[in-house]
Amino acid sequence: MRVLAIDSSGLTATVAVVEDETTIAEYTINYKKTHSQTLLPMIDEMTKMVEVDLSTLDAIAVSGGPGSFTGLRIGSATAKGLGLALGRPLIHVPTVDAMAYSLFGCEDIICPIMDARRKQVYTGIYTFEHGKSEDGAYLDRPVFKVIRVQMAVSVEELIRRLNIYGRRVVFLGDGVPVYSDMLAEGLKVPYYFAPSFMNRQRAAAVGALGIEYFRAGRYETAAEHKPEYLRVSQAERERAEREKKAVPEVRTMTMEDAAAVAEMEHQLFSDAWSEKSVLETVGQKNALCLMAEKAGRRAGYVLAYDAAGEAEIARIAVPKELQRQGVGRALLAALEEVCKERQITRILLDVRCGNEAARGLYESAGYREDGVRQHFYENPQEDAILMSRSLEDTSSSQ
Under a CB-based contact definition with an 8 Å cutoff, are residues 83 and 55 in contact? Predict the structure, then answer.
């Protein structure tokens, strides 16, 4: 079996052609150049040097994360493009799995550490076991054992775990020079660092482990492949912080919001409304449809109906990542103002019996329980708590 292996998860860019038990070629650069500049030229030069036609490949093994967000995207895009063009499957090889596999046969605890900034690392815990057959003879090959799957964790937490194992540890990866002092201060077990020829990513290891995974049925189409980041990017974290601090703004829903509402419906509800249903609701004269925005992002919505001086909430929702940030409360307050303008005196809603968070929100906003509608909800089946808020009381008190 012949595979092209790609790893651009860190500063190191590395590609290889591996055929069964043989590394035909490997090209590795550990230098400050962007992978978008180096990766395809490296593949082209390497395959020309050893006269490998890409059409003879059986699969493409790619280091699928964790690691640098930009590096992973470049590596995955390159692998996907080649896979689609050649009609070949992709083998998603976890980055730190491949790093540990490069220390083949080591019986110590193998701990790759990639610097994830802020005193955190991408890591996993591995070893090789020299097992025995039923007759007591040693197996021909050591067995690669994943003790702890790859994770993003603080250096302090990693040290605590390694001390519990009580075994000698070998470290490798770009996190070693960054956190060597912390390791020296905190570790109570013997440890050492892998030498230079095996302390960074190696595409040959990605290829060799990829072949093992392929034979075990662990592969995917090029279209299916996605990198595994383990945590959100710095840009996404900064956006999340901005969103948390931003004040929700509520406006009248428009037809252009329907697609976004339908997407949130499918994320949040088992009986999701379609985009067509949302459009039909927005177009009705007796509909009260509001959209919340937070930091320029659609952050929630309420769909209600005006019937005989009462408003019944049919849908109110906030994406999970934006809940408990004041969006739901802002939607309820804005709906009250619209109802008062239309001289609506009462707002009705129902909520799942087990949805404690929503019930708490409604109670804090002045809604009171009126009764129970048994077995009202499905998927899963659950009672509905009927609640209402009288707006006459608020008008008279102002």
Answer: no
